[in-house]
C-alpha cells in the first residue's frame, strides 16, 4: 500500500469488468417482455409536415404501437432550456428547444416524426418503410452568413430572423488600444467541429413496475440525476418514483449530457403506456443527426499590438451555428469568447457574437465545447503578429503571459456559468519552456528544419498555449459509509464514461480514512444510490465530485475519531488512523473501522443525543467559480506538398491541471483528447450540401483517426494547485483537444513556408490543403551548385577557429551584415543581397554548423528569407594542410526561390560563384589583418 | 412467421443447436439470443471493430455476418478469453498499461489482437499500429494500447522461453 494513493498511478478497479465483457452497458439490458423502438425521421432539412400516415405500419405483424405528435396529447412539450444565458447587459436570447416528435415543421434532417414499437428491432425497422410522410420542402438555412442575410428563410417563423442570440462583452478601451497600436492584424477565421463520436451510440431502456409504481430507466447519459428530475416532472411522478441508471457508458464527450433527447422523453412514456419494457438503441447513422454535435464559427478578429509584441487589445466579432434549436443556451459561444483570452494579458477586449439558427442538428458542447475556436483565433493572431514583427513564436507568447503574481486575475467579463471570468491560479512561462525543451524547439529550428529543407523536405513546428476553465459549479455531493465489514462505500451523483472516476474517488477516500483502496467501493450514476448532483460536464467530474468525496470522507473521519475517543478513552488528538483501524498514538491499542462501524449502529442501548448512528456522512461541494487549467501543445509535422498529406512526427503536451489525483488517468485523458483534436484538425468534418443534407453520414466517410494517424504523445506535468479546491484540483477532461487545431495550423504553415500558405481555418483535410496549395503555388526556385577551393596562407587551426567565430563567419556570407551566436553552433543574423535587376534586400538568415570534425571538416546549413524570396542549402567544407597553408574545399547546394530566382539560372550561377569567392577573400583579409594585429601587439 | 434456418455453432466451447431468422446478424445472435453482451456494436457497418470476435480462431466482425453463416464454426467472444485461473495475459497487459477507458471498444480490440499476437510474436510499433487500424477507439488515443500490446508480446516471449528452458 503506497503511503498515499492521491498522486499515485493506481490501476483502475473498473477494468476487470470491462476486459472480461461483464460490465453492463445500457444496450446490454434485456428484460422480460422487452419491446424495441425505432424512429421515423425527417429526410428534409426544412419543410412543412403536411401529413403522416402510419396506418400500414400499425397493421404490420409484430408492431405494437405507432406514435405521432398527435398521439402524445399534453405530453407533447418542447424540452427545457438547460443553461439559461448569463446576465450580460443587452444580451438577446431566443429560446427554441427541441420537441419530442415533429408536429408542424421539420427543422433538420433526422428530426423524429413518429415512433414505432415492435416485438423486435428488426420488425420495428421494417415498419419504418410503411410510414408515409408528406413534407412540403422549404429552402434550407445552411450557411451562417446567408442565414443572417435579409430575406433568408427562417428556421423559427415566429422570430424576425435566424438570430438566436446576440452578446457583446467589453473590457478596457479597444478603440484607444487600436489607435496606439504599432500594427493592427486583422483576419477572418473559420473553425468547424464535428461529432463526439463515442463508440457507443445512445440507448434508452425503460421499465414501469405497476405494482411498485416505479419507473426505472437505463440511459447512456452523463447526467442521470437531472434526467430523473426532469422526467419525473414531465410524467407527473415523484422524483423518488423514478430511478435513472447510467451504468457503464461507452464514452460521453459532451452530447450525452443533453436533455432531454426526444427518445429519452418518449421511451419511458411509452413503456408506461404499454406496461412493458421498451428499448431504443441508436444506430450509427442516426447518431449523425439525432445526437447533438458541435459545428462552425466564423470570426472577424483583429489584434492591436505594440512594436515589442505586447497585446494592446483584441476585437472579435463572430457568428456561431447553434443548429435548429438552442437548448444548451450559450455555453459554447461564451466558452469561445472567454477562452480566446488564453493565458494572456489583454488590456482591452471587445467581443461580440451572434448565434444563428440553421437547419442542422442541434449544437451542444462536444469535448472542448467552443474553447477550440477561441484558442485558434488568439494563437493565429499571435503567430501572424510574430511574423510581422520579426519576433520568435515563443517570445511573443512570453511577453504576453499573465505572470504568476497576478492571480486571482479578473478579466471583467462573464463566463458560461454566469460567474465572472476570474483565473484562480497559473504559471504559464515555465510550461512553455518545458514544452519547447521536450519538442526540441531550438534544435529543430536551427538544425533539423534547415537540414530537412535543404534536402527539399517540408517540416514544420507548431507550439501554442491555452487555458481551460474547468470544475465549475453548481455542486456535487457524495456519501461515504464505513460498513461493519470494514469496507467503505462511496456514492456520488456524477456519471462516468471512462474517465476512471471509480478509481480516482476511491484514491481520495482511501487516503482520508487510511484504508486499502481495494476496500473502497464507488458507485456512480444511479439515482437510487445518490440523488443530488448535476452531471459530468465541463471537465468537472473529478474536481467537483472528487472534492465532495474528500469532504464526506473527512466528515466520516471526524465521526470515527469521536466514537473511538470514547471507546478508547483517549482524546481525538491522541488517535490516528492506520491500516483500516484507529489507534492510540504510540500504543498498540486500536479498533478496526469495521468494529467501530458496528458499535456506531447498536441494536440496543442508545445512540448518544446529538450524534447519528453509523459511520456515514454526506457532503457537498459547490465552487463559486471554476478553476483554470492551462498548458502548451507542440508538434512537428511533415507535409508532402504533392499529395497534401500531413504526418505528425512528434507531439508534446505540457499540462497543468493542479494537483494530480492519478497521473495515469490524466495522461489517458490527454492522449484521448489529442487524438480527438487531431481528428478535428485534419480528418473529421461534417459536409453539408446546400439542402442541409449531410454528405458523409457514416464512419466510412466521416473519418475518425485510427492508430496509424495518432502519434505517440510526450507529456510533461506541472502542478499549480487551485486555491479554490481544498485539495487543489483542476479539471483535465477536455484539455487534450483544445489547442490541437491551432498548433496544427502553425506547424503546417511553418512546413509550407515556401508556399506562403496562410492557414485561417480548421479543419483542414488533404483536399482542403491541396486547394490552398494550388492557390499559392510554390515560389519559383532554382538550384545553384557552387564548388571550388580556396587557399588561406594560414595554419589550419587558425582557419578552423576563425570559421566558428560569428564575426568572421559573417564575412563569408554574401552581403553579410551581422551574425549572432544562438546555440552551440547556430547563428542568427542578416545579409543584404541583390542580384542583377533585383534590388538588394535584407534577408534574415540562420546558419548552423553541423557534423563538425575539428579541424578538418564541417557542414554549414544556411536558411535565408526576405520579401524577395529565399535561399537555403548546405555547404560541405573541408580544410587540408599543405605547404602553402590551408586549402579549403567547398561544395554548396543552394536552393534559391522567389523573385531573386527570377533572374535565371545563368545569372544566379555566376553571381553565386562570385559572391562565394568575394566572401572568402573577405574572410582571408580579416584573418590576415588579425594576425598582423596580433603580431604587432 | 418468417422463415427459419437451423444453425449449429460452438461458442466459447459450448455447442448451440438453434433455429434463427436468416437475416439475424451474428452480433445480435451473440448478444441477444446467447446473452453474451461483451461483444459490442458501435457502427453495424464494419468500420469500428467493436464487434470483433474469433471465428475458427480468426478475427471477424460479427456485425457483417449472419448468424446462419456461423453454422458449423467455432466462435470465441471476449467472455471466452479469460480462464478460470485469471485474465488472459493480454487482458492483464491492458489493465497494467491503462489501455482502456470507457471500455466499449476494448472487447473488439482484444479479439483483434489475439490472432495478431499469435502470428506476430514480436511486433514492432508500426506493425501494432497497423494491426489496430481497423478498430476505432475514441478515448485512449491508442497510445497505451500500443504499450499494452508490446508488453503482452514481451511477456509471452519470456514465458515461452522459460517454458522451453524447463523442457
Ligand atoms: S459494429 Fe461491427 S464493425 Fe462496428
Ligand atoms: S476505451 Fe472508449 S472507445 Fe476505446
Describe, in plain words, how this protein is organized in 3D:
- The complex is a heterodimer of chains A (937) and B (167).
- With 937 residues, chain A is of the alpha+beta class.
- Chain A folds into 4 domains: 31-138 and 200-250 and 255-290, Aldehyde oxidase/xanthine dehydrogenase, a/b hammerhead (Aldehyde Oxidoreductase, domain 3, Alpha-Beta Complex); 297-472 and 625-775, Aldehyde oxidase/xanthine dehydrogenase, molybdopterin binding domain (Aldehyde Oxidoreductase, domain 4, 2-Layer Sandwich); 476-608 and 615-621, 2-Layer Sandwich (Aldehyde Oxidoreductase, domain 4), CATH 3.30.365.10; 779-936, Alpha-D-Glucose-1,6-Bisphosphate, Chain A, domain 4 (2-Layer Sandwich), CATH 3.30.530.20.
- Chain A is built from 22 helices and 37 strands.
- In chain A, a hairpin with a 2-residue loop joins strand 23 (575-578) and strand 24 (581-584).
- The mean pLDDT of chain A is 90.
- By secondary structure, chain B is an alpha+beta fold.
- Chain B has 2 domains: 5-80, Roll (Ubiquitin-like (UB roll)); 89-166, [2Fe-2S]-binding domain (DNA polymerase, domain 1, Orthogonal Bundle).
- Chain B is 38% helix and 15% strand.
- Chain B is built from 5 helices and 5 strands.
- Chain B has helices at 26-33, 89-97, 106-119, 125-132, 143-166, and strands spanning 5-11, 14-20, 52-55, 58-61, 74-76.
- A 5-stranded mixed β-sheet of chain B has the order 2-1-5-3-4, with helices on one face.
- In chain B, strand 3 (52-55) and strand 4 (58-61) form a beta hairpin.
- The longest helix of chain B has 24 residues, at 143-166.
- The complex binds FE2/S2 (inorganic) cluster (FES) (2 copies).
- One FE2/S2 (inorganic) cluster (FES) sits between chains B (100-106, 137-140) and A (199, 251, 498).
- One FE2/S2 (inorganic) cluster is lined by residues 41-44, 46-51, 61, 63 of chain B.
Amino acid at each position: 500500500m503506497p503511503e498515499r494513493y492521491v498522486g499515485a498511478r493506481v490501476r483502475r478497479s473498473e477494468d476487470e469488468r470491462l476486459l472480461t465483457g461483464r460490465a453492463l452497458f445500457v444496450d446490454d439490458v434485456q428484460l422480460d417482455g422487452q419491446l424495441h423502438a425505432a424512429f421515423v425521421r425527417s429526410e428534409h432539412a426544412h419543410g412543412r409536415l403536411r401529413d403522416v400516415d402510419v396506418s400500414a405500419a400499425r397493421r404490420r405483424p409484430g408492431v405494437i404501437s405507432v406514435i405521432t405528435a398527435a398521439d402524445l396529447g399534453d405530453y407533447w412539450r418542447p424540452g427545457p432550456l438547460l443553461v439559461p444565458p448569463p446576465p450580460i447587459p443587452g444580451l438577446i436570447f431566443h429560446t427554441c428547444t427541441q420537441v419530442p416528435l415533429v408536429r408542424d415543421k421539420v427543422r433538420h434532417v433526422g428530426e423524429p416524426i413518429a415512433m414505432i414499437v415492435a416485438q423486435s428491432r428488426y420488425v420495428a425497422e421494417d415498419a419504418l418503410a410503411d410510414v408515409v410522410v408528406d413534407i412540403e420542402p422549404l429552402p434550407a438555412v445552411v450557411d451562417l452568413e446567408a442565414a443572417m442575410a435579409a430575406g433568408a428563410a427562417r428556421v423559427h417563423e415566429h422570430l424576425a430572423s435566424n438570430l438566436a442570440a446576440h452578446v457583446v462583452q467589453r473590457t478596457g478601451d479597444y478603440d484607444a488600444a487600436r489607435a496606439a497600436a504599432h500594427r493592427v492584424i486583422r483576419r477572418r477565421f473559420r473553425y468547424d467541429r464535428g461529432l463526439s463520436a463515442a463508440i457507443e451510440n445512445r440507448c434508452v431502456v425503460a421499465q414501469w413496475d405497476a405494482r411498485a409504481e416505479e419507473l426505472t430507466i437505463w440511459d447512456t447519459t452523463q447526467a442521470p440525476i437531472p434526467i430523473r428530475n426532469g422526467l419525473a416532472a414531465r410524467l407527473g411522478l415523484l422524483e423518488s418514483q423514478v430511478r435513472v441508471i447510467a451504468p457503464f457508458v461507452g464514452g460521453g464527450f459532451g452530447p450525452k449530457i443533453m436533455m432531454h433527447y426526444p427518445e429519452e422523453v418518449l421511451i419511458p412514456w411509452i413503456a408506461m403506456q404499454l406496461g412493458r419494457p421498451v428499448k431504443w438503441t441508436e444506430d450509427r447513422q442516426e447518431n449523425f443527426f439525432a445526437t447533438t454535435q458541435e459545428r462552425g464559427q466564423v470570426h472577424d478578429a483583429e489584434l492591436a499590438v505594440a512594436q515589442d509584441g505586447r497585446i494592446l487589445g483584441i476585437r472579435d466579432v463572430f457568428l456561431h451555428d447553434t443548429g435548429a434549436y438552442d437548448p444548451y443556451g450559450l455555453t459554447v459561444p461564451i466558452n469561445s469568447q472567454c477562452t480566446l483570452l488564453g493565458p494572456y494579458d489583454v488590456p482591452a477586449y471587445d467581443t461580440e457574437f451572434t448565434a444563428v439558427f440553421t437547419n442542422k442538428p442541434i449544437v451542444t458542447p462536444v469535448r472542448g465545447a467552443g474553447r477550440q475556436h477561441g484558442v485558434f483565433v488568439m494563437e493565429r493572431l499571435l503567430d501572424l503578429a510574430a511574423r510581422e514583427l520579426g519576433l520568435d513564436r515563443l517570445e511573443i507568447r512570453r511577453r504576453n503571459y499573465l505572470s504568476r503574481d497576478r492571480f486571482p486575475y479578473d478579466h471583467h467579463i462573464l463566463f458560461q456559468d454566469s460567474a465572472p471570468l476570474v483565473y484562480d491560479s497559473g504559471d504559464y512561462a515555465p510550461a512553455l519552456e518545458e514544452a519547447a525543451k521536450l519538442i526540441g524547439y531550438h534544435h529543430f529550428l536551427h538544425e533539423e528544419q534547415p537540414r530537412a529543407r535543404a534536402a527539399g523536405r517540408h517540416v514544420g513546428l507548431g507550439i501554442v498555449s491555452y487555458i481551460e476553465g474547468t470544475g465549475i459549479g453548481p455542486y456535487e455531493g457524495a456519501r461515504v459509509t464505513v460498513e461493519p465489514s470494514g469496507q467503505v462505500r462511496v456514492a456520488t451523483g456524477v456519471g462516468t464514461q471512462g474517465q476512471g472516476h471509480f478509481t480516482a474517488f476511491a484514491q481520495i477516500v482511501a487516503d482520508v480514512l487510511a484504508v486499502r483502496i481495494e476496500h473502497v467501493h464507488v458507485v456512480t450514476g444511479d439515482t437510487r444510490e445518490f440523488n443530488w448532483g448535476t452531471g459530468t460536464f465541463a471537465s468537472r467530474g473529478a474536481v467537483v465530485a472528487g472534492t465532495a468525496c474528500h469532504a464526506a470522507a473527512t466528515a466520516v473521519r471526524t465521526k470515527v475519531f469521536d466514537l473511538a475517543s470514547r471507546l478508547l478513552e483517549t482524546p481525538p488528538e491522541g488517535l490516528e488512523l492506520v491500516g483500516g483501524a484507529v489507534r492510540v498514538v504510540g500504543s498498540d491499542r486500536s479498533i478496526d473501522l469495521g468494529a467501530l462501524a458496528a458499535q456506531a449502529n447498536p441494536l440496543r442501548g442508545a445512540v448518544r443525543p446529538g450524534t447519528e448512528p453509523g459511520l456515514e456522512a454526506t457532503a457537498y461541494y459547490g465552487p463559486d467559480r471554476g478553476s483554470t487549467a492551462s498548458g502548451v501543445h507542440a508538434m512537428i509535422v511533415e507535409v508532402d506538398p504533392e499529395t497534401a498529406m500531413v504526418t505528425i512526427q512528434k507531439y508534446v503536451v505540457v499540462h497543468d491541471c493542479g494537483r494530480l489525483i492519478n497521473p495515469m488517468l490524466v495522461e489517458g485523458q490527454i492522449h484521448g483528447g489529442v487524438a480527438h483534436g487531431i481528428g478535428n484538425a485534419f480528418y473529421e468534418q461534417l459536409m453539408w450540401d446546400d439542402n442541409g443534407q449531410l454528405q458523409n453520414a457514416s464512419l466510412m466517410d466521416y473519418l475518425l483517426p485510427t492508430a496509424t494517424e495518432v502519434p505517440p504523445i510526450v507529456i510533461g506535468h506541472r502542478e499549480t494547485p487551485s486555491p479554490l479546491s481544498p485539495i487543489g484540483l483542476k479539471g483535465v477532461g477536455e484539455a487534450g483537444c483544445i489547442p490541437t487545431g491551432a498548433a496544427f495550423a502553425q506547424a503546417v504553415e511553418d512546413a509550407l513556408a515556401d508556399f506562403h500558405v496562410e492557414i485561417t481555418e480548421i479543419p483542414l483535410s488533404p483536399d482542403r490543403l491541396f486547394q490552398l496549395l494550388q492557390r499559392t503555388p510554390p515560389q519559383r526556385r532554382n538550384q545553384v551548385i557552387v564548388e571550388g577551393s580556396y587557399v588561406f596562407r594560414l595554419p589550419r587551426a587558425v582557419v578552423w577557429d576563425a570559421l566558428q567565430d560569428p564575426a568572421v563567419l559573417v564575412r563569408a556570407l554574401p552581403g553579410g551584415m551581422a551574425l549572432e551566436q544562438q546555440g552551440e553552433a547556430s547563428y542568427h543574423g542578416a545579409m543584404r543581397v541583390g542580384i542583377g535587376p533585383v534590388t538588394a534586400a535584407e534577408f534574415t538568415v540562420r546558419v548552423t554548423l553541423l557534423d563538425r570534425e575539428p579541424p578538418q571538416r564541417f557542414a554549414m546549413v544556411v536558411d535565408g528569407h526576405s520579401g524577395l524570396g529565399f535561399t537555403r542549402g548546405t555547404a560541405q567544407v573541408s580544410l587540408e594542410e599543405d605547404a602553402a597553408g590551408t586549402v579549403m574545399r567547398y561544395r554548396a547546394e543552394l536552393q534559391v526561390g522567389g523573385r531573386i530566382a527570377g533572374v535565371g539560372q545563368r545569372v544566379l550561377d555566376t553571381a553565386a560563384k562570385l559572391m562565394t569567392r568575394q566572401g572568402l577573400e573577405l574572410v582571408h583579409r580579416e584573418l590576415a589583418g588579425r594576425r598582423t594585429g596580433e603580431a604587432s601587439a | 412467421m418468417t422463415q427459419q434456418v437451423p444453425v449449429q455453432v460452438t461458442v466459447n466451447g459450448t455447442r448451440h443447436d438453434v433455429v434463427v431468422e436468416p437475416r439475424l446478424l451474428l452480433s445480435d445472435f451473440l448478444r441477444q439470443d446467447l446473452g453474451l453482451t461483451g461483444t459490442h456494436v458501435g457502427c453495424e457497418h464494419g468500420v469500428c471493430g467493436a464487434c470483433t470476435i474469433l471465428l475458427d480462431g480468426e478475427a471477424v466482425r460479427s456485425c457483417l455476418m449472419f448468424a446462419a453463416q456461423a453454422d458449423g464454426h467455432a466462435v470465441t467472444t471476449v467472455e471466452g478469453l479469460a480462464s478460470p485461473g485469471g485474465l488472459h495475459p493480454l487482458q492483464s497487459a491492458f489493465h497494467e498499461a491503462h489501455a482502456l477507458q470507457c471500455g466499449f471498444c476494448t472487447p473488439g480490440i482484444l479479439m483483434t489482437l489475439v490472432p495478431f499476437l499469435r502470428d506476430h510474436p514480436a511486433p514492432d510499433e508500426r506493425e501494432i499500429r497497423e494491426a489496430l487500424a481497423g478498430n476505432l477507439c475514441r478515448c485512449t488515443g491508442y497510445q497505451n494500447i500500443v504499450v499494452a500490446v508490446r508488453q503482452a508480446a514481451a511477456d509471452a516471449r519470456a514465458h515461452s522461453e522459460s517454458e522451453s528452458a524447463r523442457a
